[in-house]
Amino acid sequence: MLEAQNLQINMFENSLEFAKKCDALDTLASFRNKFHLPKGVDGQELVYLCGNSLGLQPKTVSNYIQQELKDWATLGVEGHTDAEHPWLPYHEFLTENMAKIVGAKPSEVVVMNGLTTNLHLMMVSFYRPTATKYKIIIESDAFPSDKYAVESQLKFHGFDPSDALILWKPRKGEELCRFEDLEEIMNQQGDEIALLMIGSTNYYTGQAFPLKKITDLGHSHGCIVGFDLAHGAGNIQPNLHETGADFAVWCTYKYLNSGPGSLGGCFVHERHANDKEMNRFTGWWGHNKETRFNMRHEFDALSGAEGWQLSNPPILSMAAIRSSLDIFSEAGFENIRKKSLKLTGFLEFLVDNLKDNRISIITPRNPEERGCQLSIQVKSADKKLHTRLTEAGVISDWREPDVVRVAPVPLYNSFEDIYHFAERLKKILN
């Protein structure tokens, strides 16, 4: 680890000239021009480092949506079959590209609903408690919606969350969760645990968890394993199929740049593809396509993740997703991840070079244990720091009590962005 850090230190220089040189050599630099970058009142582009909350709009989105509006206007209901991209199978146009991003087979992936809705649908099917095996593990700093969803599922089944919900916590005085502590929990209570539901990449610390190790651990104790990829999809490569997780869910409005409140994604491992006896909440869009419109058949679940669909999808939202996924396909996710490692490494280097003892990075130092986000803790700071950053033309994200979340997104952020952020932070703190 120390050798890797020293190598990283030697790789970077703290200068605007170096940042510009990196941008000149960046094979993905041109993709920045495919997005609308917000501008300040002076007309200058803002330093936008908040793709972990809302990704920027691809410039092609309007064309993709306008095509659907045109087809709706000219074809009406016939657009379901006769639109340039027919609406009946529209979700299928997203599947292959989305599957590549999360490392799954196309049959294992479907775009539908919102993230938390999908999480509930998955728990209906995969959380199967008994009188003795009923507990659920989440990480202690899981995003609140995950915690609320899990607690409500426990209550629905008649369990008290104070007993049935187990939090995988960092050790006292630490910020990050240790895998060996999860192992200890499983060794002590594995016979009582029904489900591990872990965020693949923690929203607060930016820690990316070892998904395969967690899956293998859970399965070795007879537990179901699912992941929330809200901060993972489009950021890290979770390799869901290889990982062997039972299910996963994610949103598309962060790193996948699909617009505020856009649809989520869902993964169901192929070993569950044809389990028609599994409990699930059903709707007509999950029914066999061949007989869906006969209207009078008993429910016949589609094979794979598609079988969990409820309703026909919102086409305008899916058009925005398709626009972004096409950009991902053009760039290649391996290339995106490669740039991300260097971009975030440069950010880490510059923050360290501030040499300010008030500042600490609570995100793992090992690049393999994080995505693009760094969570920067500033002792004794309050939200005024975030306000001053905003006034200085930096769009970042504040999390109480004292953390600024900064996410350099490789598709549209530059090395020069990172340099300007560090310089403005330095000026504010001095």
Fold topology:
Blueprint: H1 2-11, H2 16-25, E1 47-48, H3 61-75, H4 79-82, H5 92-102, E2 109-112, H6 115-126, E3 135-139, H7 144-156, H8 161-164, E4 165-168, H9 179-189, E5 193-199, H10 211-220, E6 224-228, H11 240-243, E7 247-251, E8 264-268, H12 315-331, H13 333-353, E9 359-361, E10 374-378, H14 383-391, E11 394-395, E12 397-399, E13 403-406, H15 415-429
Parallel strand pairs: 1-11, 3-4, 3-5, 5-6, 6-7
Antiparallel strand pairs: 2-8, 7-8, 9-10, 10-13, 12-13
Helix pairs in contact: 2-15, 3-12, 5-12, 6-7, 13-15
Termini Cα gap = 32 Å
Taking strands numbered 1, 2, ... along the chain, how are they ordered across the largest sheet?
2-8-7-6-5-3-4
Question: What CATH architecture label of the largest domain applies?
Answer: 3-Layer(aba) Sandwich
Mean pLDDT: 95
In a few lines, what is going on in this structure?
The chain is of the alpha/beta class and 430 residues long.
Describe the overall structure:
This protein is of the alpha/beta class and 430 residues long. It folds into 2 domains: 2-59 and 333-429, Aspartate Aminotransferase, domain 1; 89-329, 3-Layer(aba) Sandwich (Aspartate Aminotransferase, domain 2), CATH 3.40.640. It contains 15 helices and 13 strands. The strands form 3 sheets. A 7-stranded mixed sheet has the order 2-8-7-6-5-3-4, with helices on both faces. Strands 9-10-13-12 form a 4-stranded antiparallel sheet, with helices on one face. The chain is globular.
